[in-house]
Each structure stands twice: as C-alpha cells, then as structure tokens.
C-alpha cells in the first residue's frame, strides 16, 4: 500500500477576511477611512495569494472592490453637496 503524498495547502489569509470586513463596515460607519483600509489590506492579501501563501484572493478582490466603490460614491456625494452649496449661496445673493 502506497502512502499518498499530501501537498500542504496554502493557509487562508486573515488579511483578505479583514479587507472584506472593512469593505462592508465602511458602508455603515466612518466613511472613507475603512474604505482605504479595505483597499490596503486587500492589496496585501492579493500579493500573499500570488506568492502562494494564501488561497482566498477572491475575498481580497471583494474588499478592494467595495473600498473603491465606496470612495467613488463618497466622492460623488461630496461633489453634489459642494455644487448644491454654491447654487444655494449664489441664489441668495440675487
């Protein structure tokens, strides 16, 4: 009877899980801060997955997407508020 060689499977990477968690949390509290954390941790986790140190790059990608999506929405909201502020002040002077 032959013994099967077992190749060690890459460990799951906590950075990817933290990236996804930060990407989700940023939609509910502290806008922008957790988005940047999600992007940073997601990139680190993706690098670890490419080196073969982890097997959950998909979670890292999800955290990165959520982070960038949140920053985009936050940017649009800030821009709209600035435009509304200037339109409101310009209308009051006329």
Keyphrases for this structure?
single chain, 94 residues, mainly alpha
Give a structural overview:
This protein is mainly α. The protein has one domain (14-93). 71% of the residues lie in helices and 0% in strands. The chain has three helices and no strands. It has helices at 14-25, 33-50, 57-93. The protein is rod-shaped. The chain starts with 13 loop residues before the first helix and ends with a helix.
Task: Quickly describe the structure.
With 94 residues, the protein is an all-alpha fold. The protein has helices at residues 14-25, 33-50, 57-93.
Count of distinct strands? 0
Structural class by secondary-structure content: mainly alpha
Shape: rod-shaped
Rg is: 21 Å
**Tally of helical segments:** 3
**Spatial separation of the terminal alpha carbons:** 93 Å
Flag low-confidence runs: none
Biggest sheet character: none
> Roughly how much helix do the residues carry, as a percent range?
over 70%
Oligomer: single chain
Strand content: under 5%
User: What is the H-and-E element order?
Assistant: HHH
Total tally of structural domains: 1
Overall pLDDT level: 87
List the helices and strands and how they pair.
Blueprint (H helix, E strand, L loop, with lengths): L13 H12 L7 H18 L6 H37 L1
